[in-house]
C-alpha cells in the first residue's frame, strides 16, 4: 500500500470519482485514479476530502487504456489521518500534469459541440487529467432532469477558451445547492446566475486560480471535457452574500444591510 | 396568425434542423427514426443530451430551450422539434435580437447596389509554387486542389487592387465617389500608416465629409464590414457606403516566419461592394440584394490554430495547425449556415447561392459534402486565385450576386447566404436577398 493525496472528488452519477496525487520524486507528482471494487464511482457518503492522505494499492489496471491511463487496480482507500491545506495542494498540482494551452492538456486538439462543450477524440488523447491556470472564469447555472448544475466558461492564458464546461467538482456542486437549493424557478435562473458570478468572480483569481480538467469515459469516440476541480474552492462566507442577493430578488423598499465578509 | 400550411412548413424545417444538429453531434450513421427515444436507445448519455439541447438553443436563438426540457419527455427527433415549436410560440422574457432587427428594418433597408473584384495581375501555377516552397512536384495541387494563384506584382498593392475593385463596384451601381458617405475598409496585410481606410479614401478621392473606418476580422472581415456599414449608414444619415476588402498576402507572408504549407495557399485580390440605404417601400433597390440578417461570433477554443505572434526581438512567426483549423472551419461554417436559415426562415434547399470563405478547394469540397450543399450553388475562387484572406468570401459573394442577378424577375427574390471563418476563430454570416 502506498500513501497518496486526494486531489479531485468529482460527481459521477450517484457517486464520486476520485483522483489522487502520487509523489514520484522530490517535487514531482503524477495523478492516479483509485477505483472501488464495484465499479468506477465511490458510493456516497464518501468520507474523504481533498487534501486527505490515504493509502491505496498503486498497481495500474491491466486493462487501463488511453486516455484513462491513470486507472488503478480496484481496491480500498484507507485514511492515514494526515492532510494538506489548499495552498499546498495547489502547489503539488502544479508539479503534476500541467499545461498552458488546450492542446497540451491531453495531447490532442479539443473540438467543440454546437452547445459549446468540448471533446477530444478518444483515440488521440494520451491522458485524462491535467491542470491549467485560468485567466477568467464565468459561470452558468443550468437546470436539467438531474437538478441544478453548474457550467463554466474558462479563459486560459494562452488566449484560448473553453465555452461551456460542466463543473463536476463535488464542493462546487454542494456550494450551489447550498446557495440556491436543488432547483430554481426557470424564470429566475438568469438572475441567480448573475448573483453567483457577482459574488465569486472577484475571488477567483491570483496564484490560487487553478483548474483541473478531466476527460469523461469515451462515448461514441468522444471524451467530453469536464472541470474536475476548481481552485480556490468555494467558501462558506461566500454563501452569505449570495443568499443576501437572492433574498433581494423581488423585495420592495430599502435593502437590508449587506453582510460584511471577514474571512477573505 | 399562422396558417396551417406555414405551421406544417415550420414543423418540417424544425425536423430538418434537429436532424442536421443531431448528425453533427452524434455519429450520423447511428441516427434512428424520428420517433425513437435516443436516451433509451443508448445513443446519448446525460452529457451528450445537454450538449444537444445547448446546440439547438444556439442554432435557434431561443433562450432557455435547454433548461426547459421536461424530465420525462422522450428524447426523440420529433419531440425535440415540437419542443422548439412550443418554445418559439411561448412567452419570452426578453425580445429577441431578430425581432429588434426586424422592427428596425421597417424604417430603412440597406441593399447591395454594386460589386466588383480585382485580382493580382500575375498568374503563378501550382507547379511554380511547388518549386518556390521546396515541395515535391504536384504537392500543392494534390494536397489542396489549388491549380494556380493570382499575385500582385511589384507595381500593385492593397490600395491599387482595392481602388480597381471599388471603381468597378461604383460603375456597377451607377454611382460616383461623390455619392459615397462612408468607406469601410478591410485588410489584414496593409501595414501602412495612415490607415488603410484613410489611404484608400484619399486614393478614391471621396468627399471630405465621407467617413472612413477600418474593420478587422481577417477572413471574416467582409461580413463584419458589411454589418458595420449597414448599421452605420442610418446612424450618420448617409445614403451610400463602400465596403472594400483587399489583401496582398504573397508579399506580406514573405517577410515573416511562416510554414511553406501555409504560405503556399495564398493569393492577392480585392473586392468591393456599394451599399445603398433607402426608406422601406421605395422601389429603387436591386431586387434580391437586401442585406437582411447577420450572425457572428468568436470560438476562442481554436485561437491557437492560426496565430501570428510578434516577438520583441526577431521575426514575426506564424503558428499554423492546418488540420485542426480545417476541421473547426468546416464545423463552424455549417453552424453559421444553419443559424442563418433559422433567422431568415428559409429552408436550405431554397438558398440560391452560398458565398463562402475557402481555405482551399479541398476544404470547400469537404464542407459541401458534409453540409449537403450542391457544389453548383457554391461559387469557387481558391482553385485558380488561391486563398485571398478577407477577399475570398467577398469575391465569392460578388460571383453569387452576379449569378443570381438574372433571377430578379421571378416571384421569389434570390437568396444568398455568405459565411466565413477566420483566425480566432472569428466567424460570421450574412443573408442577402
Structure description:
The complex is a heterodimer of chains A (264) and B (433). With 264 residues, chain A is of the alpha+beta class. Chain A contains 5 helices and 13 strands. In chain A, helix 3 (170-180) runs parallel beside helix 5 (236-248) and helix 4 (189-200) packs across helix 5 (236-248). By secondary structure, chain B is α/β, with parallel strands linked by helices. Helices cover 40% and strands 19% of the residues of chain B. The chains are: A alpha+beta (264), B alpha/beta (433). The A-B interface holds A 101-103, 109-118, 142-146, 155, 158-164, 166, 186-187, 189-190, 216, 219-221, 224 and B 21, 24-27, 30, 43, 45-59, 64, 66-69, 71, 93, 299-305, 307, 321, 324, 327-328, 331, 335.
Oligomeric state, counting identical vs distinct chains: heterodimer
H/E series of chain A: EEEEEEHHEEEEEHHEEH
The N- and C-terminal alpha carbons of chain A lie at a distance of 38 Å
Q: Taking strands numbered 1, 2, ... along the chain, how are they ordered across the largest sheet of chain A?
A: 7-8-13-12-9-10-11
Structural class of chain B: alpha/beta
If helices are DSSP runs of H or I spanning 4 or more residues, what is the number of helices of chain B?
15
- Overall mean pLDDT of chain A stands at 90
* Number of beta-strand segments of chain A: 13
Low-confidence stretches of chain B: 92-101
**Tertiary shape of chain A:** globular
What is the total tally of β strands of chain B?
13
Give keywords:
heterodimer, A: 264 residues, alpha+beta, 2 domains, seven-stranded antiparallel beta sheet, six-stranded mixed beta sheet, globular, B: 433 residues, alpha/beta, four-stranded mixed beta sheet, 15 helices, 13 strands, 40% helix
